[in-house]
Specification:
This protein is of the alpha+beta class. The chain has five helices and nine strands.
């Protein structure tokens, strides 16, 4: 059985939402090369194909054995959200198993007096969120503010930050960060 490498690469690239230009940038090749491979005018060497797949990212095994007709879930039941939090802080991750996620979407719950920790967090990317109920104290850099229902935040995650529930009732937030941190 022979696999149409060009058609398979095009299908996977499109499933991942990548243009030829973006895949070329990620893989460090010209978009002309990707076009030639996808039209089957050039048969890539193993090392060239690996370089292209590193830009997705995907292993050679996944490329040749993955089921392209497999449906990627669009909807998730509450029971399908994956818990990644700890004591007093529930962080439920949406689409945890989704390959090539471009963001982290969390349903967060903070018990009264719960916090992300004494130590400030820092990582690459951006974060934002909206308070659904309760109150949350958000500290970013040297600034701190208590937010209530309907209020929101958005900041560069490379700034030291921390979250704490100063209230007597649980706090609930829906948040997003990019690139994916979990």
């Amino acid at each position: 059985m022979s696999i149409d490498v060009g058609a398979r690469l095009r299908s996977i690239r499109q499933m991942c939402g990548l243009s030829q230009r973006e895949l070329a940038r990620r893989a460090g090749v010209t978009n002309g090369l990707i076009s030639l491979v996808e039209m089957n005018r050039v048969s890539p060497s193993v090392s060239s194909l690996k370089k292209l797949l590193d830009g997705i990212p995907m292993s050679m095994a996944e490329f040749f054995t993955g089921d392209l007709n497999q449906q990627v879930p669009v909807f998730y039941a509450a029971t399908e959200l994956v818990e990644i939090g700890n004591d007093g802080v529930s962080l439920r991750l949406v689409a945890a198993q989704r390959a090539n996620r471009q963001m982290t979407l969390l349903h967060e719950r903070y018990a009264p007096d719960a916090q992300t920790g004494e130590e400030m967090l820092e990582h690459r990317g951006e974060e934002c969120g909206v308070v659904i109920r309760g109150k949350i104290e958000v500290t970013v850099g040297g600034a701190s503010r208590v937010l209530g229902p309907g209020e929101a935040y958005y900041f560069n995650s490379n700034l030291p930050h921390r979250f704490k529930n100063p209230g007597r009732e649980p706090c609930e937030i829906v948040s997003c960060s990019t690139p994916p941190s979990f």
